[in-house]
Amino acid sequence: MNWYGKKILVTTSLRSGMDLNDLADRISAETGVPRVSRDNLSLGALLGQYEADGAIIVEAGRVFFTDGSVEFFFHPGLAVLRIAEIRKGKNDQMIAAMDLKPGQRVLDCTLGLGNDALVAGYVAGESGQVLGLESSPVVAALVRHGMQTYNRGSRAVQDSMRRIEIKCADHRVVLESLPPDSFDVVYLDPMFSSPLTQSSGINSLRPLADHRPLTPEVTALALRVARKRVVVKDIRCGNRLRELGFSYLTGGKRSPIIFGILLKEI
Fold first, then answer.
1. What is the pTM of this model?
2. For the chain, which residues make up each domain, given as ranges?
3. For residue 74, is pLDDT > 70?
4. Dihedrals φ, ψ of 35, to 5°?
């Protein structure tokens, strides 16, 4: 499979059994990434043999993508801490920007690591909905597998993971197809123009990510689909939100992150 010019494979760890082979076959079918036998080859030798840029490795207890220098796999990361803080009654900047309430519906157009969707899923609760769109089949499959199998942390975190729906799709296409007012909040977190390189999670995602910038056409589609508001995440030092016409910006005073908000006119 080629993803933005990258050839990717699916294989197992050097020590594999029937369960790992079956899981590798399922991930291959889900992603469209060809499944190859490991044949006791090192990762470098395997990539060289198939002239590939990276591989999804299925091993006991973990499924991850690697290009030989970074590894991408699902982990809830700071979402665990954020949910713990929300449970204590503290403010979360993203949730405040969304003005999210239990029972509401959120469309996360750029799922990525899944951490923001996880926090939104906790707040929306059992009566709400979070649908995460991810254009990379590899990222969608690994985050979906991780959310379905992750078994550490609090019950609240695990329950939120299991409730999140993940769809591998280009959000531009999905936004065009949805009827007006389909979701209370439409959320976008495109790759930053000035990346935060200290984030190991984002660094591992970067080789698989969709780097196309957000456009006025997409924000207009998002506003049509949103019943309440569109929220876009960006880096504070960037100018993209202002260039897109966002006049309402919010975020923690010491945070490098800000959120632009477009309110739906009723």
1. 0.92
2. 2-69, 78-263
3. yes
4. -90, 130
List pLDDT tens digits, range 162-218. Answer: 999 999 999 999 999 999 999 999 999 987 555 554 556 677 787 777 878 899 999
* Tokens 């990762």 belong to residue: 43
Residue pair 142/74 in contact (Cβ under 8 Å)? The answer is: yes
Q: Does domain 2-69 have CATH number 3.40.120?
A: yes
- Give the CB-side neighbour count of residue 195, counting CA atoms within 13 A: 15
**Per-residue pLDDT tens for 90-107?**
999 999 999 999 999 999
CA distances to 21, 72, 109, 114, 145 from 30, in Å = 14, 17, 20, 18, 11
Which numeric CATH code is attached to 78-263?
A: 3.40.50.150
Contact between 141 and 30 (Cβ < 8 Å):
yes
Type of residue numbered 7: K
